[in-house]
Amino acid sequence: MNTPVALSSQLAVNPLDARSLLAAFGVLGVGVVMFAETGLLIGFFLPGDSLLFTAGLLCTGTGQHGVQLSLGPLLCAAALGAVAGAQCGYLLGRRAGGALLARSRSARLRDGARRAEELLGRYGHAKAIVLARFVPVVRTVLNPLAGALGVPARVFTVWQAAGGLVWSIGLTLAGYGLGSSIPDVDRYLLPLVALIVALSLVPLAAELYRGRRRPEEKEARG
Question: What is the DSSP string of 163-215?
Answer without folding.
Answer: HHHHHHHHHHHHHHHHHHHSTTGGGGHHHHHHHHHHHHTHHHHHHHHHHHHHH
